[in-house]
Amino acid sequence: MTTGHNIRSLLLWLALSILAVVPAALADDAAQQPPLAVIVHKSSPVDDIAIADLRKMLTGALRTWPDSNPIVLVQQPDSSPGQKRMLQLVLKTNPAAYNRSLLRAQFQGGLVPTIKVINSDANAIAFVWNVPGALSMVDSTLAAASPHVKVLKVDGKLPTEPGYALP
Q1: In this structure, are 118 and 102 located in the same domain?
Q2: For 79-91, what is each residue's pLDDT tens digit?
Q3: Within the chain, which residues score under 50 in pLDDT?
Q4: Are 25 and 48 found together in one domain?
Q5: Which of 28, 29, 60, 92 would be a feasible disulfide site paired with 111, CB 3.0-4.6 Å?
Q6: With b meaning 16 or more CB within 10 Å and e meaning fewer, what string describes 125-151?
Q7: What pLDDT is stored for residue 135 in this prediction?
Q8: Model pLDDT, residue 126
Q9: Is there a contact between 128 and 135 (Cβ–Cβ < 8 Å)?
Q10: Calpha distance 128→143 (Å, rounded)
C-alpha cells in the first residue's frame, strides 16, 4: 500500500467515526434542553392557554387577547434552535414552511400575526416585560428566573409538571 492510500483510509475511517457519533450527540443536546415556557406581560389576565390557541396565534387566526389587546408574537430568527423547536412542537413544521404559509396567507389577503423578531431569550423576556400584548416562548429556566413576566400554563400545566405540552 502507498502512503496516499493509508492517509485516505485513515481519513475515511475518521469521517465515518464522526458521523456515527454526531447524531447521538445532537439527540443528547435536544434531550438536555429545558422545556419552553410561554410568557406574557405581568398584567395579562390570561393564566392558562390551550396549545390549540397557540397554533391559532402563530398562524394569525387569533390576533387579540380576551381583553382586546393585540397579540404581538416575539420570536427568534429562523436559524435559532429555539425557533425551530417552538415551530416543531406547536405547529409540527419548520421555519421555511412556516414562512411560506405566512406569505401565502398575506398574498391571499388573509390575516397574519404581528411578529417581532428578537435575537435571544433574554431580549425576548425584556420585550414581553415592556409590551402588554406580547407573548413569547423561551427557555423555561430563564422565564422562571424573571420576576418581570408571567409564565402561562399550557393546557393546564406548567413547564415543571409531567405531561407539559412543550418539553
Answers
A1: yes
A2: 999 999 999 999 9
A3: 1, 5, 7-30
A4: no
A5: 60
A6: bbbbbebbbbbbbbbbebbbebeebbb
A7: 98
A8: 98
A9: yes
A10: 11
> Residue type at 24?
A
Single pTM value for the model: 0.80
Query: 92 and 48, same structural domain?
Result: yes
Residue 4 has a pLDDT of: 52
The CA dihedral of 89, 93, 96, 97, to the nearest 10 degrees, is -150
Of all residues in the chain, what percent carry a pLDDT higher than 90?
A: 80
* Cell 405531561, residue located: 163
Q: Residue 58: inside a domain, yes or no?
A: yes
36 closest CA partner among 97, 80, 99:
80
